[in-house]
Amino acid sequence: MFDIHSFYEAKDVADAVQALVREPLAEVISGGTDVLIRVREGKDAGRALVSIHNIKELKGVKRMENGDLWIGAATSFSHITNDPLIQKYVPMLGEAVDTVGGPQIRNTGTLGGNICNGATSADSASTMWTLEANVVLEGPEGERIVPVCEFYTGPGRTVRDRCEVCKGFIIPKESFEGWHGHYIKYGKRKAMEIATLGCAVRVKLSEDKTVIQDVHLGYGVAGPTPLRCRKAEELLKGAKVGDLAAAEAFAKEALTEVNPRSSWRASKEFRLQLIEELAKRGLAEAVKKAGGVCNA
């Protein structure tokens, strides 16, 4: 039995914002796969819930007039994985969210919930960082757009105000046109597992597929929030595809930019080993998907 103060089904985003303002203990709910667990455990007992689950404008994927991609916050993981636009332009994101939980969770859980929970282990987070996504929020003061790399403030914390609704995400065309990527989730089990470490690598190769023109490296559970290893990225730019020494230096440099902790899932030392190894493996797979040959 869930200890819920009240449940309100919002008609649209403005209605949801008004409901959050009216009720000081209200919390937004969409898929509810995490919110209801917290309520059941007593962490959010007595909360009022404002549902945005059935607001049509918050669902789906579309190509905007300027070429950017829009993903509605209430779009489920399954829909993201199977969406033709995702498969064409950012299949890496579809593959990443397809590692979340089991089929029931993926059919219900949403991208907005996964990001707004603020968890460093969120399977979509490191990929969204490497895609340089923007988070679109609407609250009592109107709409604002926050780069995902500025969205997290600490473990389970974000800049989203309680009265703000996450409407969706914008992925700039510059971050996916000509880019290819790969996400690796490490866990003790192959399914129904929270990531011990998540690693996302995206590359942009030269026209002849011999030079790494640009690279993005992102991690989850390598620090209190998801993160990008920008020094490692700079180190690899301009390297020849298949340059093992450059790949090794890339992975080593990443170790200087992370801050994993020990937990019951894994020690700090083991996570550091994963960070180095998955950077090389992710790079090799990303290069392969881009049409290059990498022996790293």
Structure report:
This protein is globular. Strand 8 (152-154) and strand 9 form a beta hairpin. It has a five-stranded antiparallel β-sheet with strand order 4-5-10-6-7. Strands 11-12-13-14 form a four-stranded antiparallel β-sheet. The chain is an alpha+beta fold and 296 residues long. The protein is built from eleven helices and 14 strands. Helix 9 packs antiparallel against helix 10.
Radius of gyration: 19 Å
Give the overall pLDDT as a whole number.
Answer: 93
Structural class: alpha+beta
- Strands ordered across the widest β-sheet: 4-5-10-6-7
Main beta-sheet strand count, sense and barrel state = 5 strands, antiparallel
The percent range for helix content is: 25-40%
Give descriptors for this structure:
296 residues, alpha+beta, 5-stranded antiparallel β-sheet, 4-stranded antiparallel β-sheet, 11 helices, 14 strands, 25% strand, globular
Write the layout of secondary structure elements.
Layout: E1 4-9, H1 13-22, E2 26-29, H2 35-40, E3 47-51, E4 61-63, E5 69-72, H3 77-82, H4 84-89, H5 91-97, H6 103-108, H7 111-116, H8 125-130, E6 134-139, E7 142-147, E8 152-154, E9 157-158, E10 165-171, E11 180-186, E12 197-205, E13 212-220, E14 227-228, H9 230-236, H10 244-254, H11 268-289
Parallel strand pairs: 1-3, 2-3
Antiparallel strand pairs: 4-5, 5-10, 6-7, 6-10, 8-9, 11-12, 12-13, 13-14
Helix pairs in contact: 9-10, 10-11
